[in-house]
Design goal:
This protein is an alpha/beta fold and 357 residues long. The chain contains 16 helices and 11 strands. The chain is globular, with a radius of gyration of 23 Å.
Length: 357
């Protein structure tokens, strides 16, 4: 076949029960110049047999590759390497594209050829089967707050780098993005990240090119019972901390303001982990994390939480921070450094002999 306009990369692992829904949603697109690149990440169910049926049906518009289980990001990277399209879109095996998804995004690329990425709004079905029409209207209003110019009533071009907005809050879902293939020559999905890997991926993309978005729901996400994001909130927070640490390591050449945003993400994650530990009466672990958070990004919220959790003895120890908490971060670090010995000897249950730093 001639080179397809869009390659749709679909990683899958033991989802033969719902995979047909995703594949059929691509076949139903109003644009027909596409290929499916299905990466089987070590499935042990009937995925291979299902793929064989679609391969007979679609011919060279369907690529199937089996690989040893390595995670969704590694599978997507394999799919990118195999892709032949001018553009690459991503679909998870339990989700689906709405019929005009490719058409609407390609139209914006046509109107603004300088764009390297176009994302969109999407709908979702929750665990109770209720459909929410727009994530932009409900969960991520920040998506519409990106400085932009409306090319048509629902097609928008970001006026400044999307990177700054996306750094503060991630609102580009895996399945909504379409990226020009040439942009991906030096960009890949972060392997080993289990939570919000799309955040890191689309941050890389947004830093490498101009972006736009279609202010219409173009995909349908299905909440899945048993997924980590639905069942294990504590593990989710731990993985989010690893993600923001990876973000900090990935983006070193940034402005001081952007660096501070990343520090705040790290600090917020540490606070939540500490809160969960305190609920389990793991006072020493919680205290240690809160002090790490306070040192990384001092703020009143951390100090108040420390005092509420650990009482007036710690209030006295934290008193030297009362003025520094409202000053510039660099000044805060100097104050913290000067008061390290005081904090290390704070009277906190379970912290005897534990280094707080």
């Amino acid at each position: 076949m001639a080179r397809p306009t869009v390659s749709i990369v679909i990683p899958t692992y033991n989802r033969a029960d719902v995979l047909s829904r995703a594949l059929d949603s691509v076949i139903a697109q109003t644009v027909h110049s596409w290929e499916i690149v299905l990466i089987d990440d070590g499935s042990t169910d009937a995925t291979a047999e299902l793929a064989e049926r679609y391969e007979r049906r679609l011919g060279d518009r369907f690529q199937y590759r089996y690989q040893k289980n390595a995670g969704a990001s590694a599978a997507r990277n394999t799919g990118i390497d195999l892709s032949r399209g001018e553009f690459v879109a991503f679909l998870d095996s339990d989700d689906e594209f709405l019929p005009n998804k490719l058409e609407r995004q390609l139209k914006l690329f046509e109107l603004r050829p300088s764009l390297g990425m176009v994302y969109s709004d999407y709908s979702y079905v929750d665990l109770q089967g209720q459909r929410v029409a727009s994530v932009f209207d409900t969960l991520t209003p920040q998506a519409r707050q990106v400085p932009h110019e409306r090319v048509t009533p629902t097609m928008c071009v970001c006026l400044r780098s999307l990177f700054d907005s996306l750094l503060r809050k991630y609102f580009v879902s895996t399945i909504t993005g379409m990226v020009r293939r040439s942009v991906l020559n030096e960009i890949c999905w972060p392997v080993g990240i289990k939570y919000a890997e799309e955040w890191l991926f689309y941050l890389q993309v947004s830093r490498a090119c101009n972006a736009g978005f279609v202010d219409e729901p173009l995909c349908l996400h299905h909440h899945t019972a048993g997924s980590m994001s639905r069942t294990d909130k504590g593990q989710n927070v731990q993985e989010r901390y690893r993600t923001v640490c990876a973000m900090r390591d990935m983006f070193t050449n940034v402005s001081s303001g952007q660096r501070r945003v990343m520090r705040e993400h790290c600090s917020d994650s540490l606070i939540q982990i500490a809160y969960d530990q305190a609920k389990d009466a793991r006072w020493g672990d919680a205290c240690k994390l809160l002090f790490r958070s306070l040192r990384r990004e001092p703020n009143r919220r951390v100090a108040i939480m420390l005092c509420r959790l650990f009482g007036s003895g710690l209030l006295e120890a934290c008193w030297p921070f009362r003025k520094s908490l409202t000053r510039h971060h660099d000044e805060n670090r100097q104050v913290i450094s000067r008061n390290t010995s005081t904090l290390e000897h704070a009277s906190v249950p379970g912290t005897e002999g534990v280094s707080l730093w």
